[in-house]
Amino acid sequence: MTETLTTPDGTAFVRTPEERFASIADYPYEPRYATVDGLRMAYVTAGPDAPGSGTATILLLHGEPTWGYLYRKMIPVLAGAGHRVVVPDLVGFGRSDKPVERSAYTYAGHVEWMQSFLAATAAERGDGPLNLFGQDWGGLIGLRLAAESTDLFDRLILANTALPVGDSPGAGFDFWRQFSQDVPFLDCGRLVDNATANELSEAAVEAYRAPFPDELHLAGARQFPLLVPVSPDDPAVPANQAAWEVLSRWTKPVLTLWAPGDPVLGGLQPFMVERIPGAAGQPHAQFEPASHFIQEDQGPALAEAINAWLADS
């Protein structure tokens, strides 16, 4: 039976048993933990304790319904080039705590949780600016973070993401949004497999299932699709509009690495490039075969492109 815990402010949550992660052989990073609003937030790090000349600290943000495991093919390539890599599990995902009430999850709340996480781990990361890699909700959250804390971020790397202000990203997203609410059980392993161009191994499918032993653990994954601001009256629209005001003047370097074969967000790369001034003249790239979870399909190539870009910056 799953034990339900409570934060000091009364938020009920569950914590995925650690044995669910015991058989994951290809993610050999010791989890660390930071506390945000009474919730334990998990993360892993790799690379040197302090980046040297020509290297950087890179924050890798995952989306729905994945966790830090999504970056297992990129972490060793980035760390091998001397970069410091920080990979958190969003609240509700991976090894992080999972509030059981769907109302506990909001777009603003996820941004605030990540702001608290960055503050809690600042001493460990050192004084240098962050370089963001955001895909899916990693971009929706990361772009808000960058716009609201411009001094904290140096470069932005975006992959198959968006920052909606009251309209849908397209029919692919509309289908996913409805499906996520109607399906009796949200099989996150099979969902990730279906959103890649290459077939995942059964071990990888099980790794994506690991954080979610039952429906009680799935509240955040269920709620995420409903938090995308696809209607003008969504409460997140004003904050996203304010973020775009900042990003439309953002001149620090921005790189987009995209999978045009993504049926949900594959066509948005030109929009992101044209909208953010810092993207002008950068070596943007597309990757095939690849679908929505480009990190699964082209992880090492993505990391090599990032290494080359950072080395030339």
Notable traits:
313 residues, three-stranded antiparallel sheet, 11 helices, single chain, eight-stranded mixed sheet, globular, Rossmann fold, 11 strands, alpha/beta
> Remind me, CATH topology?
Rossmann fold
Radius of gyration over C-alpha positions, nearest whole angstrom? 18 Å
Secondary structure tally, helices: 11
The CATH homologous superfamily corresponds to Alpha/Beta hydrolase fold, catalytic domain
What is the C-level CATH assignment?
A: Alpha Beta
Most strands sheet: 8 strands, mixed
SSE pattern, N- to C-terminal: EEEEEHEEHHEHEHHHHHEHEH
Q: Can you count the beta strands?
A: 11
Helix/strand/pairing category: alpha/beta
CATH architecture designation: 3-Layer(aba) Sandwich
Report mean pLDDT, rounded to a whole number: 95
Measured by DSSP, the beta-strand proportion falls in: 15-25%
Number of structural domains: 1
Query: Which runs of at least 5 residues are low in confidence (pLDDT < 50)?
Result: none
- The global form is globular
How far apart are the first and last residues' alpha carbons, in Å? 52 Å
- Which range best describes the helical content: under 10%, 10-25%, 25-40%, 40-55%, 55-70% or over 70%? 25-40%
